[in-house]
From TrEMBL:
Organism encoding this protein: Turicibacter sanguinis
Cellular component, GO, one term: plasma membrane
GO molecular function: thiamine transmembrane transporter activity
Protein name: Energy-coupled thiamine transporter ThiT
Keywords: Membrane, Transmembrane, Transmembrane helix
InterPro entries membership: Thia_Transptr_ThiT
Keyword field contains Transmembrane: yes
Transmembrane segments: 9-26, 32-52, 59-77, 89-107, 114-140, 160-180
NCBIfam families the record matches: ECF_ThiT_YuaJ
Lineage: Bacteria, Bacillati, Bacillota, Erysipelotrichia, Erysipelotrichales
Length: 202
């Protein structure tokens, strides 16, 4: 049991670190396109793997941790609530992909791909909602004159979230087709032998 917990923590730590590095690299070039934050990143890939292997709670906590790490790399800060909605929370809700963990782990390949798209799509929609709320509340003054802040926020945030979702989902589908044996976490069922059945009936 202890070894299992240790393995889980090690896996999650490595994958969170990978997500952080992927996002950091993406942010290097994305500042030209999204000056107030945002990037086309595949950091969703390792975070989704955590969520699929260990459920949405593990995915949520891992994403939240990854968002906190981002604050160490020059986050755009205006207000504590804005920080929450632009960094820890958007990555945390990507963990909602874990709602479909049981499906991803047990269904056939074709169905698995469908659930990967669905799961990461739900997480990405939740992430987009966080960014849009932050944009409307805290970045409305940056909207062009006469433009509705909601329209501005949707237009600013949707392209990079949508592109990140599509790229990440494609990569995940390929990974789960080629490396399913390594990625799929199968719960071992208790094997009932004739002797154990006899002992139980005594």
């Amino acid at each position: 049991m202890q070894n299992s917990k240790t393995k889980k923590l090690v896996e999650m730590s490595i994958l969170v670190a990978l997500a952080f590095v992927l996002d950091y690299v993406a942010n290097i070039y994305s500042g030209w396109f999204w000056p107030f934050g945002g990037s086309i990143s595949i950091s969703l890939v390792p975070l989704a793997v955590i969520a699929f292997r260990y459920g949405w709670v593990a995915g949520f906590l891992s994403g939240f941790t990854m968002g906190l790490l981002q604050l160490l790399t020059g986050a755009y800060i205006m207000h504590p609530i804005q920080v929450l909605f632009d960094y820890p929370l958007p990555y945390a809700v990507l963990g909602f992909a874990g709602f479909f963990a049981s499906k991803v782990n047990v269904v056939e390949v074709g169905q698995r791909s469908l659930y990967i798209w669905l799961a990461t799509g739900i997480g990405s929609i939740a992430r987009l909602a966080c960014h849009i709320i932050s944009g409307v509340v805290f970045f409305a003054d940056y909207a062009p004159e006469g433009m509705n802040p909601v329209v501005y926020s949707v237009g600013y945030n949707t392209p990079f979230v949508l592109a990140s979702y599509i790229l990440s989902a494609i990569i995940l589908v390929v990974l789960y087709k080629r490396y399913a044996n390594q990625l799929v976490r199968i719960q071992k069922e208790k094997v009932v032998t004739p002797s154990s059945e006899t002992a139980a009936s005594v």
